[in-house]
UniProtKB/TrEMBL annotation:
Domain of life of the organism encoding this protein: Bacteria
Keywords noted in UniProt: ATP-binding, Kinase, Nucleotide-binding, Transferase
Any coiled-coil regions, as ranges: none
Transmembrane regions: none
Protein name: Protein arginine kinase
One Gene Ontology MF term: ATP binding
Domain Phosphagen kinase C-terminal: 14-244
Enzyme class, broadest EC rank: transferase
Entries under NCBIfam families matching the protein: PRK01059.1-4
Native source species: Velocimicrobium porci
Family statement drawn from the similarity comment of this UniProt entry: Belongs to the ATP:guanido phosphotransferase family.
One Gene Ontology term, aspect cellular component: extracellular space
A biological-process GO annotation: phosphocreatine biosynthetic process
Length: 343
C-alpha cells in the first residue's frame, strides 16, 4: 500500500508533505509530565481499549505498545515521521495506533495523552486535517477530553492550548538555503506566528535543505484560521524559492547542471555510501528533477521516497537483521543503484 511519502501533491517541487497534529488530553489523568509509571500504563491500556475497533477506508489500524518494541523499530518509524523523537526516547509506557499507509496515527502518552496525526503528500493540508479530525471525532465520542469553555483544549504546552492544532508543511528550500536567506526567512515567519524548524521538528536541524514550517500557537485562533494563515505564508515561501531557483539557473546553469549530473553518476556507480553523503547527493538529484534539468522515464519516480527508504534503521528493517556500518553502506549503495530513476 502506498505510504504518505510516496504521494505527490500540489507544488511538490517545494512542498514535500502536509501534516496536522491534534493534541488532546483525557480529563481523568494528569498531564504526561506529572504522570506516574502506573498512570502511564493505565492510560495506554484505556486508549487502546476504547479505540480497539478503529477502521478507515483501507481497513483496520495497527495497535502496538511502543515500550515493547526495540529502539531500532521505534527509530525506523521516527525516520518515516510516524513517531516523534520525544516519544521514541520516552521511558514511560507509550502506545501507537497507525493506519496501514501511515497517513493516520495516534501517539499515546507523548507530550500529551493523544497526538492525532494526519499526513498527506504535497500541499494538501486540508486532506491531512480531515483525516485527523475524523479520528478526533471518534476519540471524543468514546473518551472525555480536558476542555475549558474559555480556553479550549487543555494541553501540556501552553502554546498548544485552544484548538490543540499544529499544522505544518515539510518544504524543500535548496535555493533559499544556498543563498543564505533562511535566517531572514525565519525572522519574517515569526512575525506572523509561524516557525521554521528542522526536518524532524522542534530541536532538529535542517537536513539537506528540508525544513518544517508550522504555526506556533493555537490559543485565540480557529482551526480554519490557522490553516488559512499557514497556507498564505507557505504560498509566499514557494514563490520566493521558485524565484531564487530561476535566478540561480539563469546565472549558473552550466555549473549547476554539471554538479547534478556528477551527483547522479556517483549514486549510479557508488559501491558504498553513508547516509549523509547519500542524502546530500539525492537532494541535488531532487533539485535536478524539480527544475527540469533531469527528466525521468517514469513519472512516478519519487526522490523523497528514496530518501526515506535509505535511512539507517529502515535499511535494517528491510534486511531483517543488524548490520555493521560498512555492510549497511554497501546495501544502501546497492539499493540506490536499483531504485535511482532512469534518465
Amino acid at each position: 500500500m502506498e505510504k504518505w511519502f510516496e504521494e505527490k501533491g500540489n507544488f511538490s517541487d517545494v512542498v514535500i508533505s502536509s501534516r496536522v497534529r491534534l493534541a488532546r488530553n483525557l480529563r481523568e489523568y494528569p498531564f504526561s509530565t506529572r504522570m506516574s509509571a502506573e498512570g502511564a500504563a493505565s492510560l495506554v491500556n484505556e486508549v487502546m481499549g476504547q479505540l480497539s475497533g478503529l477502521t478507515d477506508s483501507d481497513g483496520v489500524f495497527y495497535f502496538c505498545n511502543l515500550s515493547k518494541l526495540s529502539k531500532a523499530e521505534r527509530i525506523a518509524m521516527m525516520e518515516r515521521h510516524v513517531l516523534s523523537p520525544q516519544i521514541v526516547n520516552k521511558k514511560q509506557e507509550t502506545g501507537l495506533i497507525v493506519s496501514k499507509n501511515e497517513s493516520l496515527s495516534i501517539m499515546v502518552n507523548e507530550e500529551d495523552h493523544l497526538r492525532i496525526q494526519g499526513m498527506a503528500g504535497g500541499m494538501h493540508i486540508e486532506k491531512a486535517f480531515q483525516l485527523a479530525n475524523e479520528i478526533d471525532d471518534i476519540a471524543s465520542s468514546k473518551m472525555e477530553f480536558a476542555f475549558d469553555e474559555k480556553y479550549g483544549y487543555l494541553t501540556t504546552c501552553p502554546t498548544n492550548v485552544g484548538t490543540g492544532l499544529r499544522a505544518s508543511y515539510m518544504v524543500f528550500l535548496p535555493a533559499l538555503s544556498a543563498a543564505g536567506k533562511l535566517k531572514l526567512l525565519s525572522e519574517e515567519l515569526n512575525k506572523y506566528g509561524i516557525t521554521l524548524r528542522g526536518m524532524y521538528g522542534e530541536g532538529s536541524e535542517g537536513t539537506v535543505n528540508i525544513y518544517q514550517i508550522s504555526n506556533q500557537k493555537t490559543l485565540g485562533n480557529k482551526e480554519q484560521e490557522i490553516i488559512d494563515n499557514l497556507n498564505n505564508i507557505v504560498l509566499q515561501v514557494i514563490r520566493q524559492e521558485r524565484k531564487r531557483r530561476e535566478y540561480v539557473l539563469m546565472n549558473n546553469y552550466d555549473i549547476i547542471e554539471d554538479q547534478i549530473y556528477r551527483s547522479y553518476g556517483v549514486l549510479k556507480y557508488a559501491r558504498q555510501i553513508n547516509t549523509k553523503d547519500a542524502m546530500t547527493l539525492l537532494s541535488q538529484i531532487k533539485f535536478g528533477f524539480d527544475t527540469g534539468i533531469l527528466k525521468s522515464q517514469n513519472k512516478e519516480d519519487n526522490i523523497f521516497r528514496l530518501m526515506m527508504e535509505i535511512q539507517p534503521y529502515n535499511l535494517l528493517q528491510r534486511e531483517g537483521k543488524m548490520l555493521g556500518n560498512i555492510q549497511r553502506d554497501k546495501i544502501r549503495a546497492e539499493y540506490i543503484r536499483t531504485m535511482l530513476p532512469i534518465l
